[in-house]
Amino acid sequence: MINIRKLESELWESADLLRQGSKLSSQEYCMPVLGLIFLRYAYSRFKYVEAEILKDRPVRNGRVLPVESSDFKQKSAIFLPEKARYDYLLNLPDDADCGKAVNEAMELIEAESTQLKGILPKTYTSFRNDLLKELLRIFNNSALNEINDDILGRIYEYFLNKFASAIASDDGVFFTPKSLVKMIVNIIEPTHGIVLDPACGSGGMFVSSSDFVNAEGINANSVMTFYGQEKVEFNAKLCIMNMAVHGLNAKIKSGDEANSFYHDAHNLEGSCDYVMANPPFNVDKVKAESTQNAGRLPFGLPGVNQKKEVSNANYLWISYFYAYLNDTGRAGFVMAASATDSGNKEREIRKQLIQTGHVDCLMSVANNFFYKVSLPCSLWFFDKGKKEELKDKVLFIDSRNYYTVVDRTLNEWSEWQMKNLNAIVWLYRGEKEKYTKLLQDYRTQIINDCRELDAEFESVSILLNGYGEKLKPLRVQVADTIKNAEDINQLLPLNDMLKKYTTELNESLKALCEYGDGLEKDEAKVFAKSIDESATTWERFKKSVSTRIEEVVSQIKACRTVIKEAKWLTEKFGDGTYTDVLGLCKVATIDEIEEKNWSLTPGAYVGVAPVEEDDENFEERMTEIHKELLTLQAEANQLMDTISANFEELGI
């Protein structure tokens, strides 16, 4: 089985190392590298479809008829002329102009695909020959041949994510963090019809919608039509390549005609089954008259200043998203946190919107969910097909205290945290069966994790050579628990058992190392060899055992995280009955919202939860803070070295 996370990381590290050795900025490097990933995808897809075509290929005069461009069009695939194939580029002679050859390959592909016309990068002659050849080699990984598993799509998204982080300080607005995208998709549940993103960036909403449908065993292209508008042409090119890498068809418009303030570029008002977006926040200087003429304003214009400009476009976007929906459509979008409670004309628009009964859910999101930007935001959800009993209600969720810290500048939701927040929406909608299925998923995941750990515990016990005697009863206890557990609640005590197992592992390792360190050099080597015949020195053996223990402790931590998330969910909602939870969620009626002057700020309804002491979280956070301090110290030292060198150059 391919370790996709490891593959993503290794490919990025290799590619980024080359960038650091060149004179290219992240901005200059981004599009060409993503273009090479596309080229690799096109080749893998070509070989896969070619094999399918050749299965039933006619034979004439003893020869199989060669495949042609028309054969590929019948299978909705791109035919690659020989000079556009990845293997051709890999095997170019040493003295060949690699940049020129890759540019030609991109032009040949565009000639075969109207969707990609003018989209693919052709700046490869700016790369050094050796750099470009090494990049081609990096992406010639055999794991990337697996078309059906969408591995290249994952790689493309991973690189987009990493580039977004690097470019964010400039204009990295093309990428919405994946956990926000997935949350939107999971709550509006796109399954069919017309899907629109009028600020589509690099197309993450479309890809995630496709993943959602594919998980149900349905081909997204057969049930959905994707439409996008993106004013910035660079971003639109990223989007079209992203769609192509995932095998998706989309109608994307870019440039001035795709400025959503002034154009409904696809004529979709009142026609969309699903609308998703992460629009730019707090845009000003939008021409009021042009906006008025462009329509899609069911609640009228927001405030207009003396210059006849809309000074804050947040409520233009909100109005558009609502106006695009058909009679049963759903919308989910990211919005500045301030929009939930803004006053004047915006409050009047919000009042009218709430009174439609189509506001489904509002979710507050913590700081640091965006690259290089710390501001909080909210997720808004509309549903024109709400059940009758929910039409006078809105679900408020405050998730500002519920997330995973990635580093000191970035937070996200883990997969299980997203599922837990999603479960609140299911229960509010009366979809208890989905909640029950989630509990079953938790049970299966925890049991499978513990079974894998059981095998790890056995191998580690051998390495500890008797110094892990205390581990045996704990291992039996874990095995008995998963064997006898009939529901998720019986698995929750595993958290404390696994915590104790981690403690005993570390203590056993310490005892083993102290014993070995106390021996003479030759004795220590013999001792190491008695445990592992491949051990060449005691120090190497000790290092390998320590590394192995770290790996197992990491696996234990991952399993315990799943258990803690299961506990978080079941403590609040038991077997599956929605209830308001102080500080987390509240279902409010329209009358209650009116009492709060039409505010849609979740915190105004859910209240503040009591502070819970959590020793484990405290330990983890202190570890994170320590790592942050070490990082900052290293950065400070590097900065001091630079300053000292500059002073020396100045003769100071």
Q: Explain this structure to me?
A:
One of its GO terms (biological process) is methylation. Keywords: Methyltransferase, Restriction system, S-adenosyl-L-methionine, Transferase. InterPro entries: D12N6_MeTrfase_N, DNA_methylase_A-5, SAM-dependent_MTases_sf, T1MK-like_N_sf, Type-I_RE_MTase_Subunit. Its EC number is 2.1.1.72. With about 650 residues, this protein is an alpha/beta fold. The chain has 4 domains: about 5-155, N6 adenine-specific DNA methyltransferase, N-terminal domain (Ferritin, Up-down Bundle); about 170-430, Vaccinia Virus protein VP39 (Rossmann fold, 3-Layer(aba) Sandwich); about 440-575; about 615-650. The chain is about 55% helix and about 10% strand. It has 23 helices and 15 strands. The strands form 4 sheets. It has a 9-stranded mixed beta sheet with strand order 5-4-3-6-9-11-10-12-15. A two-stranded antiparallel sheet has the order 1-2. A two-stranded antiparallel ribbon has the order 7-8. Helix 2 (about 25-55) packs parallel to helix 11.
Task: Give a short synopsis of this structure.
InterPro entries: D12N6_MeTrfase_N, DNA_methylase_A-5, SAM-dependent_MTases_sf, T1MK-like_N_sf, Type-I_RE_MTase_Subunit. This protein is α/β, with parallel strands linked by helices and about 650 residues long.
User: Which architecture of the largest domain per CATH?
Assistant: 3-Layer(aba) Sandwich
Count of individual helical segments: 23
CATH class type of the largest domain: Alpha Beta
Q: What sort of overall outline do the alpha carbons produce when their principal axes are compared?
A: globular
Main pleated sheet: 9 strands, mixed
CATH topology of the largest domain: Rossmann fold
Mean pLDDT: 88
In which range does the helix fraction lie?
40-55%
**Order of strands, widest sheet:** 5-4-3-6-9-11-10-12-15
Low-pLDDT sequence parts: none
Tell me the structural class: alpha/beta
The tally of beta strands, per DSSP, is 15
Estimate nothing, just give the exact number of structural domains: 4
Identify the CATH homologous superfamily of the largest domain: Vaccinia Virus protein VP39
Q: Over all CA atoms, what is the radius of gyration?
A: 28 Å
Report the end-to-end length measured between terminal Cα atoms.
59 Å
**Percent of residues in β-strands:** 5-15%
